[in-house]
What does this fold into?
Amino acid sequence: MLKKGAKITNIMIEKECAEQKVKICTFVTSNFIKMRSFGSDNHSGIHPDILNAINNANVNHVIAYGDDPYTQKVSEKISRIFGEKAQFFPMFNGTGANICALKACVQTFHAIISAETGHIFVDECGAPEWLTGASLKSVSTSNGKVTPDKLQPFFHQFGFEHHAQPKVLYISQLTELGTAYTIQEINELADLLHQNNMYLHLDGARIANAAASLGVSLKALTADAGVDILSFGGTKNGMMLGESVITFRPELAENMKYIRKQSAQLYSKMRFCSAQFDAYLENDLWLKNATHANKMAHLLREQLSQIAPFEFTQETEGNIILVKMDPVLIEKLLEHHFFYVWNENTHEIRLVTSWDTTEEDIQHFTNDVKKLLKL
It folds into this structure.
């Protein structure tokens, strides 16, 4: 592992990435039949209702590219759930949805602001900057959440032609650290941004977990709180694939279908994406799945707390746990369980529960912790 303060070269980075990839591939190959992961909610399977919806849509022929009854039905559901101003645009994946949402907000001389831990800043390979042409600016946070005071320095750049003009703030719900923005926190950000002719983009890859944790509706967390454009996902919460952009302002919806096409995010057989959203939104399946995932995260944290005085570095406000452990314990656990080391320098790991995580999964993990600690 690279040590803190070491001089890092491309060769060293490639070597470490290769070593980590070998470890991951070895683990998956030897455990793929029985693998139960705390690495990501992306590792989970597909909810049976979603699979049934895909199968039920697989009959006869319909017109492609969204001119189908399945997409129309979901668009109507989105309007009922998020408000009549909401317009629904299905996409392939989360990065694509984020890029399309941001492209609707900016021109090439604009700046996009994000927390330094934000997904677009860390995990999207420079795609937002490359595909929007706008610059990406970050702010430091202790809990993954941007606060109004963090935005003030950017406002001094307005009207000065030598600086990229701040135009949109990106936040995610949940944050990458597993924390959740309250309605009041979102509203305060939105009010400040709108006063300065800026937009608020919310990445809702885990918005279901946030809504379940806070006990509020999706509309209350978005349209009612002042969000201008939303990346609305379900892949982490029981869907097979497919995300979407939901706009709440007419000017952001105006060119979205062209932006989606240019960004290679337009399905031809869109009915199979829309059918998933139909099942996902039916009878609050999204909420049931997220509530279960959150419950499993709290159970896992509670059981770990009973084993040893582990240091949890963030509040568990959804389905993500960040906790520090002895590096030897981490290495031993990784021999039998799949999860990611969040920060190697501080020996911090991230554990993520899913809609299909079971109490047995948690018991297996915590039993191994006890054994390795010889308790």
In short: The CA atoms of residues 28 and 34 lie 9 Å apart. The chain has 16 helices and eleven strands.
